[in-house]
Amino acid sequence: MAVCIAVIAKENYPLYIRSTPTENELRFHYMVHTSLDVVDEKISAMGKALVDQRELYLGLLYPTEDYKVYGYVTNSKVKFVMVVDSSNTALRDNEIRSMFRKLHNSYTDVMCNPFYNPGDRIQSSGSVSLSRAFDNMVTSMMIQVC
Amino acid sequence: MMSKNDGEIRFGNPTELHGTKVQIPYLTTEKNSFKRMDDEDKQQETQSPTMSPLASPPSSPPHYQRVSLSHGYSKLRSSAEQMHPAPYEARQPLVQPEGSSSGGPGTKPLRHQASLIRSFSVERELQDNSSYPDEPWRITEEQREYYVNQFRSLQPDPSSFISGSVAKNFFTKSKLSIPELSYIWELSDADCDGALTLPEFCAAFHLIVARKNGYPLPEGLPPTLQPEYLQAAFPKPKWDCQLFDSYSESLPANQQPRDLNRMEKTSVKDMADLPVPTQDVTSDDKQALKSTINEALSKDVSEDPATSKDSNSLKARPRSRSYSSTSIEEAMKRGEDPPTPPPRPQKTHSRASSLDLNKVFQPSVPATKSGLLPPPPALPPRPCPSQSEQVSEAELLPQLSRAPSQAAESSPAKKDVPYSQPPSKPIRRKFRPENQATENQEPSTAASGPASAATMKPHPTVQKQSSKQKKAIQTAIRKNKEANAVLARLNSELQQQLKEVHQERIALENQLEQLRPVTVL
User: Which chain B residue has its CA at the smallest distance from A101's CA?
Assistant: First the structure.
């Protein structure tokens, strides 16, 4: 279960960021922001290699004392960043991969909606959400806060 | 009269009381109090209608403006109360003319007038929710007709899709807010493919109509708006059939049985026409061809709306496939019971395969049981057709040997086969004597009848089928090659651009270095 999930556009601005409500929500935002550097580093590590050769799942970007940050990049340079609690040792790599895959699927569904302009924030505004399915999917992946 | 207004009131707010005499002011206040949608738009609409009750509201969507043509409308007006001018200024410009028939759910007089209105103009059907008072989400026949006509105006082929952008432009005319339209799209585009088939379009249109009439959007797609329900409830109108028959490549949007019939016809024709292929397919023709057919079919099965609608939750992405697969599979599955399908890798969100295809192939497994293993479209990887032939033969042989055995056993055989691709030739040799041995022992069970491909009887038919499958595969291969060529061209162009950019970068770096000593002192 993730603690924070963020979708970042190609130009490195956030399309969607959501964290389980704790007191330090800004901290997660900061972590996601710093992880972007690592993501860029991993992307550029391929050098002149073709994009197809690059795997979408980037794996563990960097671990901190309390949290681990995982990254995933789509072919259109949209990044998904997931922050996971370090104490949650039961979470294996495969599970993280599947979570990213689900994220990617939901994101593509949002994209398919012609009323969604690429580059817009994926909002959940008021009663009518722009991406209710996406929200629900993310909620299901986040930690259940008692 | 009061009932009509009641209907209108109810339309806007179901909790409202009925027969009160304070109707006109009540209505206006009621409606003005509903600020669910863009108020500015609504206000524009409210002002214009009051000026000319008989004329269609200019600000309403263009397709709604056909209302102005409804002269019968004026008749209605005469019969309608004079209160109607007041109700006009609603956020329901569509409702006004209805006045009488406005989807006031549940009052009989409304229905009468609804029937009157129906006879006058098609557009009035938009408001005709009164037939099913407790189910505003149910589409009536007239509404359905109207939606279908609108669909045709956007997309002449009723069994094809409306693309996202076209639908977006169309629905934007309804003046709902973008988030709401987006939500409606989310609800109605069940397979999330960015395009609307006819049932999806009807559902979306109906939701928009309902929303405009004041119903809050549902949390989920109501059961009466599900695509399968819509397909089943409203059989295709006559004009569809002719278009339907004429289409060989477009996806059938409705009624899979009809598709199957048509496709069976075409498939039978193809089978008769195909010459026996000259490729290296020997006695395993039948299985090879069937496997190749299934392969081609799998490639062909695109986001078959019929199948995808049937499994509402599926996300069928591939569009480049024809629907012809379903007919063959259906035909093949008739005489055989489906064994357990082999496990297929989950290709989420890939255009090569989808859950649709998994379902599609499950019926075809019986065919494979007779000796074919239909490789899933995305796998196994087939570097070249020749190799695939050998592989398929290898796969077929284990199938043959196990055909007489039970279905359960055949499925493990299929599972084993993909793994045995590298040692294809040894397996083949190994299985040949087995085949011959089993041939003698094979009981001619119905299920294994065709499976006993070693026997000569099914050969002629098998050859026909196999040749047809071969042809299908060849066409598929050709298409893929073309696609590959296009992509390769694109790739080379992009590579050139990349090189240029690199060179620019190098030039800039050189400049930078030259400038650096100047700055550093």
Answer: B348
